[in-house]
Amino acid sequence: MGASKYIHIGRINFLAKTAYMGDLLLGTTFYTLILFVFVQLWRVLGGPSGLVVEGFGYREMVWYLTASEAIMLGRARIQDDISDEVKTGAIAYSLGRPYHYLGFKFACYWGETAVRMLVHIAVGIAIALLAVGPIQVTAVQLGALAVSVTLALILNFLIVACISLLAFWVEDTVPFFWIYGKLLFVLGGLFAPVELYPEALARAARASPFNYVLYVPARMLVRFDAAAWGNTIAAQLGWIAVLGALAVGLYSLGVRRLNVNGG
Amino acid sequence: MTAIKVRDLVKVFKVAHKRPGLAGSLRAIVRTEHVDVRAVDGVTFSVEEGETVAFIGPNGAGKSTTIKMLTGILYPTSGEATVTGMTPWKQRQRLSRSIGCVFGQRSQLWYHLPPRDTFELLAHVYELPVSQWKPRLTTLADRFELRAFMDTPVRKLSLGQRMRCEIAASLLHAPRVLFLDEPTVGLDVMAKRAIRDLVLEMNREEGVTVLLTSHDVGDIEQVCRRVMVINHGHLVLDTTVAALRRDFMKSKTVRVRLDSPVEGILNIPGVEVLKRKRGNLKLLVNTATTSMDDVLAHLMQLGTIEDITIADPSTEQIIAEIYASGR
């Protein structure tokens, strides 16, 4: 019964977000544009010459980018909601409900992410198929990939929640989100897999949680390694445990600092 | 049985204070100064089950802060409180199942979805069995006349329709205490009346205890039997609405526009002329000595009434009267 309420919260947010389907479809223009630009880039670099770097050729690079960008653009943008609610004190109204605030936001996040991911995955697959044709994946690999993508999105939620909850202590969290975006670009391996990075940067990327948000699932799509899958999932779960504890800790500390004007 | 018990409740907010000018801004970067604001300062009262109590006061008096502490939203600085036997800020999750809250400026409805979806979600959030919430929703939909727009997105509803949905939503889990914080703010006269009637009906039929804050004296007179007046965080009066009306609401302000300019001295017993300009008059009527019928009769002798409004004293005027009476 406890989980049922969160499933319904997710469901209702899924329905609410479908009210903006036109906006969402329009939003995929940016995704399409990025994929188009990079398809041209990788075609020049890897197409005719057949250049392959660390096992990533033209086709792999396009499918890698399709996957990493789908996660990047498909994740729900809950940061503004949480930060605003903390800053304005509106978070307080959730305290009087029989659910956990972070659980509520997590459910909302999944409701919106489900809509956004479905649209981005559909658009991404269509573009990648048109540009480079299909990639070899089995049903088992897709199942394994789905687990990793799910954990990646949970990890992203927790990082975003931690940053948003900093609004209890700082005036503006926007700069932190700007930094997080750039960290995903670089350490997350948004545009290219870390195999292409200089050794020191690749080591730093692999040691960070950002790598497990984009690189790990995107790489799993193009170069599935069954032997390493268990370790990868364990590492994602490890980061989820650490950041989950941090988010709950920040929330518990922050709520006691709540100042809501009377009105 | 006591529904709400409050003893020496205090809430102090630390408010950041910046000195004026560039020097003040630079100083604030190094060291932020804070000023203590005592929003609620030693409030003590109790409310019995089934009572309808108004909690009134001007802006910043501490009424909403008190409600937020009683609903578990805010931690108090000191003092004690129990609501249906629970300490709100310690047992807020358990308490949420026995109280309903409506914050007039904070909607719980999902803006892009029909009210039915919010009701269904709340039923799941409160973990109500289907056998309980479905008939309950049917009853509330009938009583609050929601059927016509149950499947219309909330964004397309009028403010009055939304507020009816808000109150129905807060009653879905059959709470024993209902907290209403400015429930009629922004509503027109008809919508206000509908909300007041519904709250009163729920109190009579289900015995729901009602604690209501409002700026609108009409809310208090029509819904509540008891009134508590708070000012600067202190409870300055705790009495019946009948006593409040008798002792501190002895005047009404009448604004009237007549079709012709009023000539000469206007001499109506118990009426003070506050302003006059051609056919426009602003009058202060002492209702303890003069009936509104008499005032209207006098005005009609002066000419044809084109427009008229009759206003109760504001909460600020009532508080001024309370202080003037030495209580």
Question: Which features characterize this protein?
Answer:
heterodimer, A: 263 residues, mainly alpha, 73% helix, 0% strand, globular, B: 327 residues, alpha/beta, Rossmann fold, Alpha-Beta Plaits, 2 domains, 4-stranded antiparallel β-sheet, 11 helices, 13 strands, 31% strand
Number of separate helices of chain B: 11
Number of domains of chain A: 1
Order of strands side by side in the largest beta sheet of chain B?
5-6-7-3-8-9
Let me know the average pLDDT of chain A: 89
- Report the major sheet of chain B: 6 strands, mixed
Assembly type? heterodimer
Q: What is the number of helices of chain A?
A: 11
Helix content estimate of chain B: 25-40%
Tell how many strands the DSSP assignment of chain B holds. Answer: 13
CATH superfamily of the largest domain in chain B: P-loop containing nucleotide triphosphate hydrolases
Q: Briefly note the structural class of the backbone of chain B.
A: alpha/beta
Show the largest interface. A-B, 26 and 42 residues
State the separation between the terminal residues of chain A, measured CA to CA. Answer: 36 Å
Helicity range of the residues of chain A? Answer: over 70%
Biggest sheet layout of chain A: none
